[in-house]
Amino acid sequence: MIRRLLLGLAGTLAALPAFAGCAPDVAELRWDGGKARFRVEIADTTEERAKGLMFRDSMSSGAGMLFVFETPREVGFWMKNTLIPLDMIFVEPDGRVARVHENAVPQDETPIPGGSGIQYVLEINGGLARRLGIAEGAELRHPAIGQAAALWPCGGE
After folding, report:
1. From CA 26, how far away is CA 59, in angstroms rounded?
2. Which of 34, 72, 126, 128 is a good FRET partner for 61, with 20 to 30 A between their CA atoms?
3. How far apart are CA 97 and CA 7, in angstroms?
4. pLDDT of 18 strictly over 80
5. pLDDT tens digits for 72-94?
6. Cα-Cα-Cα-Cα dihedral sign, residues 48, 50, 56, 60
7. Pairing relationship of beta strands 112-125 and 34-43 according to DSSP bridges
8. Strands 34-43 and 63-77
9. What pTM value is reported for the model?
10. How far apart are CA 69 and CA 100, in angstroms?
11. Using CA atoms in the order 12, 18, 20, 24, what is the torsion angle rounded to 10 degrees?
């Protein structure tokens, strides 16, 4: 019985599309010498992006929020009503990390520029990017990234 279930499961997995390794609630990063995986909430509407991670007093170390914009643009973020320090990872349309802003100060309303040509921003707990080694040039994998242009497409290792 168990063998039949395992064979059925293997057949089902083999039939899934190549991008099945990516999940909408998971963002992965890779760079020379490392990889990281975060369970993410998606902010892809104007309202969700405006609220972001405001009013939260904690976030697990394996969690984050991925901001998705319809097209590349110049972006700037601030920490108004955000109670926890955050690292902001600014990402280009192909998934390349263009900039990392470390330890944004809670409730600071000073704009944090991400640069131009940014389509995604991953926010994680402050200080985590440095501890893990996430820096400019790392690659983000997520199904929101156009797979034809992605540096690290879903299904690719």
Report:
1. 15
2. 72
3. 40
4. no
5. 999 999 999 999 999 999 999 99
6. positive
7. unpaired
8. parallel
9. 0.86
10. 18
11. -160
